[in-house]
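agent> fetching stored inputs for the fe (ii) ion docking request
agent> found them:
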Amino acid sequence: MGCKELALPDDLVTAAWLHDIGYAPELVETGFHPLDGARYLRRLGADGQVVSLVAYHSCAQIEAEVRGLGAELASEFAPADSLLTDGLLYCDMTTGPDGGYVRPAERLVEIRGRYGPDHEVTRFVARAASEILATCARIEEMLPSQPR
Ligand SMILES: [Fe+2]
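agent> prediction call returned; pasting tokens
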């Protein structure tokens, strides 16, 4: 089932395409990709909702706290619409590195394994896992059918 069949809002689809743009080496400022990506999109004059979705994607506020950037994120960007934020988290946490569907719990295991036990991302996942899984469960209940 694609974006059109699901009638997904344009801002959500745009943010889903752009949410990890802050990983691009030429955009790195803080090394925290949601913040770096949102700053870049703001400089481009991107839609404010899209910028906020990128800034706060997938519990980025929790990772920002882990990295000591929580106040910086909050002072620069307003949170996006909560349902769109949840929808973007669901898209991110059900898509593996190869683009295929993964269950959210498996995605978290994959992320922890990729970064290793001492990395900031792994510490973030430990703090955010329950919120990530609960959000995914809420979105799955709203979908017309389960993805797998
Ligand atoms: Fe990301």
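agent> quick read of the result: Residues 19-20, 33, 57-58 surround fe (ii) ion (CB under 6 Å).
agent> awaiting further instructions
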